[in-house]
Amino acid sequence: MPSGLQFTLAHSDHAAQFGPRLGTLILRRPNGCEITLDTPTLLTSTSRGVVSHLSRDHVRQSSAIRWVHVPFETFLEQSPPVPTLQTGPHPLHRFLGFVPQDHILSTSVRDPDDVRQMPPNGPNYLAANSLRGVRKITPNEWRTYTDKIQPDFVIALTDTPHTPPPFSQKRLTKSIERSSAWLASLLSPVVSAVTPTASTDLTATDLSQAPTNASDIAATKPAVLVHLAGAASHPARSAFAAALLEPLSDIERASIGGLPTLDAGVAGYTIDLAPLRIAISSSPVSPPASSDINPSTNITSSLSALLQTSLTRLPRTKLRLIYGTLGPHDALHLLRDVGTDVLNASWALHAAHVGVSLDFVFPAPTRDTSPTIEGDSAALQPLGRNLYAPQYALDFAGLSTSGNTCECAACAPHMPDTRIVHGSDASEEADAYVRARRAASASADQANDGGDDDSSANLRNPSYTRAYLHHLLHTHEMSAHALLALHNLAVAEAFLQGVRTVLASSGGVDRFANEVARFEAYYAEESLTVGAPREEGEKGGIMAEARAMWAQVELARGKGRLAREKERAVAGGTEAEP
């Protein structure tokens, strides 16, 4: 683990290999800046380095976005990839507009949530899905790119099959061998210069771009994370974990900087649930006879069993990242049964994309005293609201249920401390208007609170209402999805804050198990991820309803609207709307 990275488990039960974990991740930059994250924490996914629906100002405004993951395959349409041309410190942060003092960046070649079928990987390359088709990336190229862009965490190349399952034993053996070899390539020590060899697949341009100063590279070398390979096979997953811990020969140790094992060079482990779910659904999985893991018939329990097989022998003090959770219920099951430190919340952004405003808390509220989304307090409550629905057209309440505090930009919009100048607009009238609004807001807050604080917190405006978001959605306004994305990410972060609070309390582990059961009894479980496989017998909920209404609005207001209106007008004998 790099000297600037520190991860410690704070939970009293350090002996348990599995179960809920409470920890602290500290990243210290060379300039003395320090980023501290309490775990379990949230990871935000991106497309080409952009958080869906959000501008850079939105990202900087959101306290929920601290760790950002960047799939690199979307930059491979150019050679060399454009981010590798960025110079100066923190190249990837600067290229994508993230703040090194506030944001942790991780990168992998493939998008962990992308389960589209791909051509098979080769012995010396990984197939990646760029904007201009499939590209092949070699271990040497991946190392050169990551040394150049300097993310905080880099995920080693892993031979995950993206062909139709099930996979043969021969294919799984290849996957384990290739993944181990590619990890060793990434862990090899920094050299003073990049010299072309017979095995190097880089172009002359790539070689000229590579760093040549070993000390400069070593000072900014990212922490390495490894994906736990083995697909849906317990023996294969156990074999890969054993390969990470196997003592290396003298020659092998010399090739990776003297490390005794491959595991000694990694800072943590990652698990991609999306391809694993497909592998499980294609062939039932049962643990080996010697395992103490209980067999299960559903996908969630099968996932937990497979992850436990991979992690049984590995040190529990290293980071665990899980991509591909389907919603808060799925996240709670993994936190309880396996134990993880970082979870992505793509489901929060998927919900925002189809007009769903999330509204849930952990621990779950009591039924007797808390307001509910559904009228029947005894019924299972949905995880949010479909704001496309007509009942919200005149609903002027905020996005959160009364009593649930949310500090996102949609629920607690703030006036800027200074006027935002556009172009040459510098009129005294505009300045006077901003000063008057700020003074009026501060006076109102002082009168209500009895305080004399005149900070920017007093510049808070009323919450955006459900009716306003309903209007924006039906008029196909982009700002609707931006506000919902900010809100849903804040709800997801508050959810994990609730998990941390419960674990830090007296009897945290036992109380956490009880609160998970209460959460399941209060909220209806539903996959919030678009296109996720459903359990047998699972019915559609707010997401299915929202997708249908979103499609109707997209058809009426989206791309190609004028052509469709013209066709209808011709068929009906009337003129199309302008």
TrEMBL record:
Top-rank lineage group of the source organism: Eukaryota
Region (Disordered): 437-459
Residues annotated as transmembrane: none
Coiled-coil regions listed in the entry: none
InterPro entries assigned: Queuine_tRNA-ribosyltrfase, TGT-like_sf, tRNA_ribo_trans-like
GO terms, biological process: tRNA modification
Domain tRNA-guanine(15) transglycosylase-like, residue spans: 20-187, 463-517
Compositionally biased spans, kind Low complexity: 439-449
Name of the protein in question: tRNA-guanine(15) transglycosylase-like domain-containing protein
Species: Sphagnurus paluster
